C-alpha cells in the first residue's frame, strides 16, 4: 500500500509511521511522499529518510497535490497534523482513501479552528474528565467523517495543556498505526 502523508507541524505522527515501516510492523506500507503546506520540522524528518517531500502553497494545495498523487498511484493519504482545509473536490475524490488524526474524542472539540493546543485548552475549560484522539475518514465537513478508531485517557486534577498534549501524543502513536495497519491488511 502506497501512502502519502500530509503534515504541517512537528511531525511526531509522521515519525511514528516512519519508525513502524522501518521496524516491519507496517509491512505492507510504503511511504511514497510527504507533502506540507508550510515550513515545519516535519520536513526535516522526511528529508532525513530521503522521502520525496513537497512544500506546496496553501492557496492551491489541493490542485497541486492532486498531480503528485495520481502520478504515484497513491492508495491512502494520511493527514498527520495537517492544517489546511482541503477543497470539496479533493475530499470528494479522495475521501474514501484519506484518514485524519484529531486530538480529541470527536464529535467533541472538532471543526474549523479546532487544532493542536486550542483543542486541549477547550477540553480543560469544559472540565472534561476524559479526553483522547480519533482517527477518521475525511469528508468535506471538517472532522465529520466516519470514525475508524479512538483512544482515551483520564484527565487528572491540575493537568495543563502540555499534559494533555503529551497524553494525546501517546494515544495517537497507538491508534494511528493500528488504523493504517488495519487498512493495509483489508
Ligand atoms: C497532533 O496532535 C494531531 O492530532 C493534531 O496536530 C498534532 C500534530 O502533531 N491535528 C490537529 O489538530 C488537526 N485538527 P505532530 O505534527 O507532532 O504529529
TrEMBL record:
Supply the alphabetized keyword list. Answer: Purine biosynthesis, Transferase
Protein's UniProt name: Phosphoribosylglycinamide formyltransferase
A GO cellular component annotation in the UniProt record: cytosol
* Residues annotated as catalytic: 102 (proton donor)
Q: What is its EC number?
A: 2.1.2.2
Top-level taxon of the source organism: Bacteria
Report the HAMAP family cross-referenced here.
PurN (MF_01930)
> Which sequence ranges form a coiled-coil region, renumbered to this chain?
none
Species whose genome carries this gene: Faecalibacter macacae
- Pfam families assigned: Formyl_trans_N
Pathway named in the protein's UniProt entry: Purine metabolism; IMP biosynthesis via de novo pathway; N(2)-formyl-N(1)-(5-phospho-D-ribosyl)glycinamide from N(1)-(5-phospho-D-ribosyl)glycinamide (10-formyl THF route): step 1/1
